[in-house]
Amino acid sequence: MLELLVTLCIVALLVGIAPVAVPRMFPRQQLRNETEMFVATARLARSRARLTGQMQSVMITESQDGYLLGTDSHRLAKGMRIHARDSMADNVQKQSVQFHADGSSTPAIVEFELSGKSERVNIGAITGRAEIIQ
Predict the structure, then answer these.
(1) Whose CB among 57, 87, 90, 112 lies 3.0–4.6 Å from 107's, allowing a Cys bridge?
(2) Residue range(s) defining the domain that contains residue 75
């Protein structure tokens, strides 16, 4: 009976710790998930621009811990940062990426950083395509 009680206590402790510990154990996967979420947001912005005929912008927050598309905002995982720069001009920082009605966009490289690791997304100028690059 005592063994069962000890086992249940250990299981309860592990279940309580898991939601806090698991995301920290897999920063590479967390980084990939956030990068894929951004790509989906960029594709949505491009589609909205084409459908409505109005420019759409994905804005990076001043604190570099999230981004916005219209009134929709997304905060990155704790400790993660986002930076954007012009892909055609070295070291020119950007606060937003614009998608135009013709499908084009302002060219950009968007970089996500977490625990010394990074993932990058290229936004093509002519096509407006967003894709993860290595």
Answers:
(1) 87
(2) 27-133
Is residue 44, in this structure, part of any structural domain at all?
A: yes
Q: Residues 25-45: pLDDT tens digits?
A: 688 999 999 999 999 999 999
> Residue 118 maps to which CATH number?
3.55.40.10
How far CA 82 is from CA of 41, 68, 98, in Å, comes to 14, 12, 16
Phi, psi (deg, nearest 5) at residue 81: -130, 150
pTM here is 0.79
**Residues ≥6 apart with Cβ < 8 Å to 69:** 41, 44, 45, 56, 57, 58, 59
Is 116 among the domain residues?
yes
